[in-house]
Amino acid sequence: MNLRRRDFIKTTAASAFTAPLILNAQKAKMIKTAVIGAGWWGMNIAQAALASGQCKIAALCDVDDSQLSSAREKLRPLTSVEPKWYKDYRELLQDEKPEIVIVATPDHWHALPTIAAIEAGADVYVEKPICHTINEGRAMVKAARDHERIVQVGLHRRTSPHNMSAINFLKQGGAGKIGMIRSFVHSDGGRGRPTPDSDIPPGLDWDFWCGPAPYRPYNAKMHPRGFRAFLDYANGQLGDWGIHWLDHILWWSEEKYPRTVHSIGARHILQDNTDAPDTQVVHYQFEEFIATWENRRYGGNDAEKHELGIYFYGTLGTVHIGWHDGWTFYPVGRNAEILHELPQLHEPDQQNIPELWSNFLACIETREKPVCDIEIAQRSTNMSLLGVLSAKVGRSIQWDGEKEIIADDPEANHYLQRDYRAPWIYPR
Ligand SMILES: NC(=O)c1ccc[n+]([C@@H]2O[C@H](COP(=O)([O-])OP(=O)(O)OC[C@H]3O[C@@H](n4cnc5c(N)ncnc54)[C@H](O)[C@@H]3O)[C@@H](O)[C@H]2O)c1
What we know:
With 428 residues, the chain is an alpha/beta fold. The protein has twelve helices and 16 strands. The protein folds into two domains: 11-157 and 365-373, Rossmann fold; 158-348 and 375-414, Dihydrodipicolinate Reductase, domain 2.
């Protein structure tokens, strides 16, 4: 990139979320923490919990023995506590009575364990998107409020120094008046080929894994990690990556929801056995600006400079906020200075979970709402889910964010929830 770089002072953003940790580290009591969903991201959060010096991982729950045993191997060098193993989160909650529960299951399994953990008296750190259908999110917020629990959601970019300073720059008018926002993820990839269904691997309770969602034959492409591209269990790129960048729109604007949402999604390229769109566009209409989301899983190239993130287009220039590429301000006018700030990310997987965890612990102590409170994340999740819903019904939808319904559209409102597979009951 042909940029003249100017590094900003980066200390304020980072210290805002780490100070409480230093104070609390003097306390001896270790907070009893359990993980439900001991896969890739669950272990990243567990590692941040251990690194805080204030938490012990007392129990791990996963429906797959092989995931449990690799989780145990990962944690072993980090702690002398040997976590107990569970396959059913209800037994874990009853037997262990954890003070903190981390929920890092696939998206279709976020709502019920989160609500159960809240009802069991735990404070919860649940992954994004908070739910698979919109009314699950309502029930989760209600449970958190009724039981006065702290519920932090894994939108760690809200505590990431470069994302914070970019939003601060925008809020201070650095890019002038913003009229349009474009958020996106483009990744390279081929057309793919189908993976045949296969026998359920030993030690995996596949029926439990499918849980409240439709039961489908086991397919190695779905688990682990592959659920994202199957609409019964997640919501494709829009649900996975989309929420991170759509959250920036609400974060910057302090709006609670868009008025109108219109989306088109299609599978034009992929020929594998996933079913999420490989191509999707969403338009969001707000009072003061228009925002878009787009994803595609092909045609990765250097022509577009940034492969993911969000552009804010303003009267004084354009801000791009990204991930490894930090954030950049491209001012109007050839001779004006381009501003650039590098990210400050943690291993593994270049994230800012430690800052988010630190804020979670501080809020557990003060009982204040955390930076990614469940209600904030519910609204951002809804940005994704309303896009999914509009594509499903094939038309624009008018979102009444106060009543949390779609205006004058009974068919679209039908998709705010779905039938659960017995014995699981949709949360109210
Ligand atoms: N915030 C972020 O940047 C970020 C990054 C990656 C993943 N995530 C989120 O984390 C969640 C997990 O993603 P992942 O990539 O770690 O998936 P994964 O497949 O690696 O892990 C999920 C685990 O949950 C287990 N599981 C399924 N149903 C369960 C149940 N009922 N009880 C207990 N365990 C169950 C699975 O067996 C699996 O081991 C997703 O919601 C994803 O969106 C967030």
